[in-house]
Automatic annotation (TrEMBL):
Cross-referenced InterPro entries: Restrct_endonuc-II-like, Restrct_endonuc_IV_Mrr, tRNA_endonuc-like_dom_sf, Type_IV_Methyl-Rstrct_Enzyme
GO MF annotations in UniProt: endonuclease activity
PANTHER family per UniProt: MRR RESTRICTION SYSTEM PROTEIN, SLL1429 PROTEIN
Region span, Disordered: 95-132
Name of protein: Restriction endonuclease
Alphabetically ordered keywords of this record: Endonuclease, Hydrolase, Membrane, Nuclease, Transmembrane, Transmembrane helix
Signal peptide residue numbers: none
C-alpha cells in the first residue's frame, strides 16, 4: 500500500540584515539628536541673555500641555490652536512689556545751587542764626565779628568804613593766624563778581598782611570770582556756607585757608 507523501511547510527564514538601512537609521538618529542638542543650547543661551524669554517658553510649554490634555477630551483641533495662539500672544506681550520697561535711573546729585538752597532751608530759623537779610551792612559786619568771637578768635575788631581798603573785620584765629574778612550783605539776585574779588585781593595780603583772607556774603559768587579767589587763596563763604557756619553745622571757614597760611 502506497502512503501519500506529506508536504512539510518551509521554515520561516529570519529577515535578512540590511547594513545600509541600519547605517541610514543611525545617521538620521544622530542628526536628530545633534539638532535637538543645538536647539536646547540655543534656547538656554537666549533664556540666559533674556530671562523674559524663559517665561515665554514656559507659557508655550504650558499651552502645548493644555492643548494635549484637551485633545484627549476630543476638543476640535481649531479650538486647541486658537487657545494656544491666545496664550502665546499674551505671553509674548507680557515679555515684550517687561523688556521695554526701562530701569529706574539713579537719583542725580543736587547741583551746587540746589545744595545751597537746601542748606539755606535747613539752617534758616535754627537757634542762634540771625536773619541776615534784615540786617544793615554795618549790622552784618557786627554779626560776622560776633561769629569770630564765638568760635574762639581774639583781637576781633570791626574796621569797615570809609578808607577801609576792603577790610571789614580783622581778628586773630585760635591757631594764631591773622584773619581779614570782607563782608558783602547782598540779596539773592546780587552776586559777588570778579572785580570785587580783585579789589580785595589787591589789599588783603599786601596792605592788611592777612594770613587768611575771607569774603563772606549773604548772596553768592560768580564763576569768574570763584576762579580768581582760588588762584589768590581767598576763601569764599556764600549764603549756604554762612548759614551752616552760624548754625554750627560746618567748620570755621578760615580753616580752609589755614593750610596755605602755614605753607
Amino acid at each position: 500500500m502506497t502512503m501519500p507523501e506529506r508536504r512539510t511547510r518551509p521554515l520561516h527564514r529570519g529577515r535578512r540584515f540590511d547594513l545600509r538601512a541600519t547605517a541610514v537609521f543611525f545617521a538620521l538618529l544622530a542628526t536628530v539628536l545633534i539638532a535637538a542638542g543645538l536647539t536646547v543650547r540655543a534656547l538656554a543661551g537666549a533664556v540666559q541673555r533674556r530671562p523674559a524669554w524663559g517665561f515665554v517658553l514656559l507659557c508655550v510649554a504650558v499651552a502645548v500641555v493644555l492643548a494635549h490634555g484637551r485633545r484627549r477630551r476630543r476638543l476640535s483641533a481649531a479650538r486647541v490652536a486658537r487657545r494656544t495662539g491666545e496664550a502665546l500672544e499674551q505671553a509674548t506681550a507680557t515679555a515684550l512689556e517687561a523688556l521695554d520697561t526701562p530701569e529706574p535711573a539713579p537719583p542725580a546729585a543736587p547741583a551746587p545751587a540746589e545744595r545751597c538752597e537746601e542748606e539755606t532751608r535747613r539752617t534758616a530759623g535754627a537757634p542762634g542764626v540771625p536773619d541776615y537779610d534784615a540786617l544793615s551792612p554795618e549790622e552784618f559786619e557786627e554779626a560776622i565779628a560776633a561769629l569770630c568771637v564765638r568760635d574762639g578768635c581774639s583781637d576781633v575788631r570791626v574796621v569797615g568804613g570809609a578808607g577801609d581798603l576792603g577790610a571789614d573785620v580783622v581778628a586773630r584765629s585760635p591757631e594764631g593766624h591773622r584773619l581779614v574778612i570782607q563782608c558783602k550783605r547782598y540779596g539773592d539776585d546780587h552776586k559777588v563778581g570778579s572785580q570785587d574779588l580783585q579789589r580785595f585781593g589787591g589789599t588783603c595780603f599786601t596792605v592788611h598782611e592777612a594770613d587768611v583772607a575771607l569774603v563772606v556774603t549773604t548772596g553768592d559768587f560768580t564763576a569768574p570770582a570763584e576762579e580768581y579767589a582760588e588762584q589768590c587763596g581767598i576763601v569764599c563763604v556764600n549764603r549756604g556756607g554762612l548759614l551752616a557756619w552760624s548754625a554750627g553745622a560746618a567748620p570755621e571757614p578760615w580753616t580752609a585757608g589755614a593750610g596755605e597760611a602755614d605753607a
